[in-house]
Design goal:
Elements lengths: L1 H13 L22 E4 L9 H5 L5 E4 L4 E5 L8 H5 L5 E4 L11 E5 L12 E3 L8 H5 L5 E4 L4 E4 L9 H5 L5 E3 L1
């Protein structure tokens, strides 16, 4: 009796499609909203550090002095907070997954040295400024100081990442990155 059940199951299996995916031969197609892993375009990244500040698990580390961006893959929960706040849109939540590993590794990327990217950009403010201080409040690295009483405006060019948040938030559009 048991042999008949096994024989019947074998005959059915011969004429049906396989129950499992033929993974190495046929790669898996991920659904449209699959959150696989975060990737970065280092040519567009300005190393502002906003992504590392917004990461709820502290998986991202940005070192402006060493010009490196790193992510600890085992800490990342693919929430896309970093992708949403990136001012240069250089972070992407790709739908493919990283290769599994037995060790916790951190992927580190270095900013390529480009002589054309030398310190040429400066944040400037024209005469239409009303010294409201919104730019200082929006600055993620606190590089801008505004004194309403003295009607002065100053930027610390060492701290400034040129992310553009202050330019976007200025109600008089008096800020520019030149």
């Amino acid at each position: 009796m048991a042999n008949l059940k096994i024989g019947k199951m074998v005959m059915r299996s011969l004429f049906r499609k396989p129950a499992t995916l033929m993974y190495p031969v046929i790669p898996r197609k991920y659904p449209e909203n699959t959150r696989g892993h975060i990737s970065v375009d280092m040519n567009a990244c300005i190393l502002c550090g906003i992504c590392s500040k917004k990461c709820p698990t502290d998986a991202i580390t940005v070192d402006r002095d060493a010009k490196t961006w790193s992510i600890q893959r085992m800490r990342c929960i693919q929430c896309s907070c970093c992708v949403e706040v990136c001012p240069k849109k250089c972070l992407i939540n790709e739908s493919s997954y990283t290769i599994p590993d037995v060790m916790k590794v951190a992927d580190t990327y270095e900013k390529p040295e480009d002589p054309a990217d030398a310190p040429a950009e400066n944040l400037v403010c024209d005469d239409s400024c009303v010294y409201c201080g919104i730019c200082a409040k929006k600055c993620p690295v606190e590089a801008i100081t505004v004194d309403r009483a003295a009607k002065t405006w100053a930027v610390d060019h060492e701290k400034c990442t040129r992310c553009g948040f202050c330019v976007e938030s200025c109600p008089k559009k008096s800020l520019k990155i030149e």
